[in-house]
Structure prediction request, 371 residues.
Amino acid sequence: MVVSRPPMGWNSWNTFGPEIDEQTVRSMADVMVSEGYLAAGYEYLVIDDCWALRERDANGRMVPNPEKFPSGMKAVADYVHSKGLKFGIYSCVGNYTCAGFPGSYEYEFIDAETFAEWGVDFLKLDYCYKPLSEPGARLYRRMALALDNCGRDILLSACSWGADETHKWIKTTGSSMWRSTGDVVDSWASVKNLYEIQRGIYEYNGALCFNDMDMLIVGMNGKGNVGVAGCTLEEYRTHFSIWSFFGSPLMMGSDIREADDDVKAILQNPAVIAVDQDPAFRQPYTVHGNPHVWARHMADGDIVLGIFNVDDNPMWVFVPFSELGIGRIAGRGFQMTDLWTGEDLGVKKEQFTLSVAPHASKLFRLKLARL
Prediction:
């Protein structure tokens, strides 16, 4: 399956963990449509671990837990599809999932056929209980082969946590997205840590096989399965800014049924989502030696400037436009727009300076302008 832009959707793990069931899935599908998330681009609804029984059936097939999913998984998928959404499910490259349920190791073709029959559109494939003798690349290639020949388009999301130098081999596997980090939790420290990981591997971002920085924690507020300390609204905004700027898949993890207007304004900001979804998907670069000031060229000729202060003190930023391609006698400047406030800052020439508060961020869209 070929996916041209970072996938967007919702995943059950961050909030519900093992306590996922059919009614929750149906209600979440309803909210994704009624509250504007589907219209904003979030099209996948993904059930994570703990949906199955502990044993396969006599034919070697996985069995949905009948207490959690009494209607069966196909009926759940049909309901999700009836809302205009796409349906996702979870398995593992190993013998077991991370929670000890059946994994897909050596059952790849059976599982791919089963998922296709159920109407699955997205498979998150985790990395737990992988036999030590089996290279991860081989196992993801095997599942990709099975999915590509199952008779249905199913996106493969490789969740190998960046282990075993995933970035060096993942594009050989047929995966459409790949996890470059360990699991996120709902804390500022976790956001900062996952951002720091990207600074070492951002050159491995690439179209058609998108670098997944893990699910979004925006709006969790310390609740749910990975709820820890929670974050401030500003920290959630920085979190969303970083994920969008680096072109990560945007998979919501909070209970969006409880989202207030401030959380919805972050998750549904069209100007910021457009950065994540830009069709050129060009590699970002740091500006003027500051490791937290980044630029990324957009498909329409604009440049997006991302400034991320992940430290505990204010950060003074100086951006000479020569670093962005404009010489001093070019007769050009940049018309700058703040992507969070929508404010037009007018045309700036030669340079731009500002101060950024601790744990805050700025996203500006720069359009070339004649002076």
